[in-house]
Amino acid sequence: MITPLTASESVVLDEDELLAIERIVEAEDPLDSPYSEISQYLLFDPINTSFVPPPDPLRPGVLRDFWASADVGITLDGRICILAPDLFISMDVKRPENWQKNRAYHLRKFKVPEIVVEVVSNDEGNELTTRPVQYAEWRIKYYAVFDPAGFLGEPKLYTFQLRGGKYEPMDVPFFPELGIGLTPWTGKFGGMHATFVRWCDAEGNILKAGIEKAAEEARRADDNQLRANWAEERAAEERRRAEEAERKLADLEQQAKSAEQKAASAEQEAANLRALLRKLGVDPDAQ
Fold first, then answer.
1. Structural class in CATH, domain 15-208
2. What is the pTM of this model?
């Protein structure tokens, strides 16, 4: 269980100090590693390409909006970005079209996100100390932390649910309000083989990224083309067999016709011989 700081332990900074900290963070924040880049893509892209929001019981049949962003600052008043999680999802919020006036996610202007996700890349992010305290104060219901390199202990996925103002560990990393969950996934993506945290449905099926869906469609199209080619080859072979059978039948019919003609000719020749014998006074039918 994660317990928020008490009032006596909290540090209150004025606006100038917060702005100074923000400028320092922007100037000195280290660049993402290749792993962090892929990890963030696998969290962000599947949500925006494969995620189907669960129905709203109060508005049946209405397609729900949602706002999912990666590394976008969360702010109370639109001026000071307190935290920028690796990903957050806020249901029933439409992303503003005027991004110049909405460079961050304003809690007071929109609503509290359902979930924030952090991927640990060093031991300085305070993912299990001060960060969850702030998220709990904002009343964000779910908080997930994936620590692939074990900076916080053993490599694992931590998921928490807000209960009574405090985050408590979840037994199953599934979030009913979203209809999806999180799971560690080991595989190769973007040329890198590693363990990433990925979204999944209730049955554990991974939500595909756009590039994965495109590759699957391409493979499916190739498979369909192979099946079509095989079917065409089989049909062509069947046509060849049918044509050969027709040729054989025609030959047999021709042979039968020729045999009939020969038999008729033989009968005519026999009739002529009998007639000749009778003319000569010989009865051809006599025993």
1. alpha beta
2. 0.69
